[in-house]
Amino acid sequence: xxxxxxxxxxxxxxxxxxxxxxxxxxxxxxxxxxxxxxxxxxxxxxxxxxxxxxxxxxxxxxxxxxxxxxxxxxxxxxxxxxxxxxxxxxxxxxxxxxxxxxxxxxxxxxxxxxxxxxxxxxxxxxxxxxxxxxxxxxxxxxxxxxxxxxxxxxxxxxxxxxxxxxxxxxxxxxxxxxxxxxxxxxxxxxxxxxxxxxxxx
Length: 201
Known about the structure:
This protein has about 200 residues and is an all-alpha fold. The chain is built from 8 helices and no strands.
């Protein structure tokens, strides 16, 4: 074997080692947005395990929610497709006490009824999103600027422009959506909740 072949072989091995080290660093490197919070990936992984363990412990503690806050927490830390009596009971408890926190409870219920395979209900989802997002300052007046039903596009700040709500409008259609709007508006009035009809208000 010539000196050239030996040198070329050593260079090839060194290059391969450098590539492996580089790939390992990329896999273990922290994303830039997490660097202010964690020193390295090991610290992030330890934090993640601790959080999973805490959530598992909390799920066990909440197997019989005694109030609406516990019920909402139970719904939040479980997946959307938990099919048991505790989940169903917690869902009913949050719905019955929506007035206690219409912004957070409305959005939580909207998400569950939108994304759950077990509890999927587009009408309920849209209704609760209307209530929840209206209390976060989104406007609620139906003002389609797209003119291509059922594809809605309202002014900036319209809650129906939010991606999941927009999909619900497409699914339900304008007529059904407007009927749900009336019910949600009535609920908000009965519960003395302020509503922003248009973004400039």
